[in-house]
Amino acid sequence: MRKRTAKKLFKCVDDILSSMEMLTKFKGNSYMVSKVKKVCSDNTAVLENEKDAGQRYSELLNEFKKKIESSDIEGAKKTADDFKNLISDSVVYKVVFMPYKASMWDSLESVWMAADKDKRCETVVVPITYYELDSNRNPVKRVNEREEFPEYVPVVNDEEYDLENDRPDIIYIHNPYDDTNLVTRVESRYYSWNLKKYCEKLVYIPYYKWVDGVSSTSFKSAMYYADYTVQSSDDAVKRCIEASPDYARLLGMENVEVRNAMEEKLINLGSPEVDKIVSLDEETAKIPEEWKKKVIKSRVNVLYNTTIDEIFVAKSLDKVKETLEIFKRQKNRAFVIWRPHPLLRQTLQSMLPHLLDEYDEIMRAFMDDDYGVLDINASMNHSIFWSDAYYGFRSSSLTELYKYTGKIVLKDSPKIVRVESNMSENTLLARLRKTNVVNEPEVSLENMIDVIYGNGELKYGKHLDLENSGFKINNYMLEKLCQEDEN
Questions:
Q1: What would the 3-class secondary structure string for 186-222 be?
Q2: Beta strands in 307-353 (DSSP E)
Q3: CA-to-CA distance for 421 and 409, rounded, in angstroms?
Q4: 388 and 449 in contact (C-beta within 8 Å)?
Q5: What is the pTM of this model?
Q6: Is the separation of the CB atoms in 394 and 211 below 8 Å?
Q7: pLDDT tens-digit readout, 239-287
Q8: Which end of the chain, N or C, is surrounded by fewer C-beta atoms within 10 Å?
């Protein structure tokens, strides 16, 4: 049964016990006796309405009724304790997941998996509707990506889901921006402060992997309005708490009030995205049909991740063009799996429109050639699993995630268009056997390709044996609900 039903039944039991004690004080008062008996009768009727609560529930209810009829207060209290324990054990928490982009589902998936297997939970996945915005922040396209989620994830149409009446115990979200995003925006009923009205716990899990010392502490409104923000490192918690004065200024509140809230809401419970990475195999990350006979082990398959941040840093697309040109020159030894950020084109259209035509031309030329494939899959896991190495911006969460494969990561420098490295092949090989992360300009993309091509063992990384974050998050939130029920 749902938690709110259990609360209602607890109140009925408590009201009956209180009425029985009152009855002993007013035995001679026929008016009071009739009033008290009616209270007992009305509450017993409510308890009897739970017809599907099971055989043990019916047995204890019948026993409880007998104690009431015989005015056995002490016996009724003992039976009431057993009855309430049974009700507590029967509580099922409604846990609703409200992702907006299918490509970001990995940030919630392992929590959903843990909750879906937990007998204490009933789970629902409701992909929510959002709008793409133009450069004036006006909605130009209404989007819902429920058809793009994995087949094993049962999804519910958000237009059919009655949030206001269902009132779940926990809602998980990965979009924290509410009305502040410049590129996409969820419908207003899904803003964090509105969702909070209809659930016990609102939990925000970032859709990106935090990079210690690099990731931005910029304020997202859900960080304040949600009950918890799940971070993936102590550095994330510490730095976001330290940024409380900035958050307070944006919220128009006192520093101490916002800092206290951040200290309560920010918790390090790991990353569901890492859970996904370390679990990938040929079945869970099946190679896309159009990649077959292209992504082959005789070449070095490099995942090239192009981020929004690096374009803003470079203020041009020159580095992108140079990078693709390297792969074109090296196409007998290397093959690029190019994965631009899913919102890159929309961001250029909205915020850097002078680069849009150039970007479209780069894309057209790439698609007409044969030295790589474009990864537009909702999930980045195909690229991660089938690539042999990675090239991308240091602040990207994908850069951070790829480290957990144990395969080679080269962090690029967006402002340096042509990288020339003086490091010898033997020196680089020795380095890569000690660490899987290297940086431009010390190491160039061509250096990395050459060394991996000549030393095939570098294509295979080792997965780390880590505690499952989805399991930790699910347990933590349920324990918080249970603790509140006991208080």
A1: ECHHHCHHHHHHHCCEEEECCCCCCCCCCCCCCCCCH
A2: 334-340
A3: 16
A4: no
A5: 0.78
A6: yes
A7: 999 999 999 999 999 999 999 999 999 999 999 999 999 889 998 899 9
A8: C
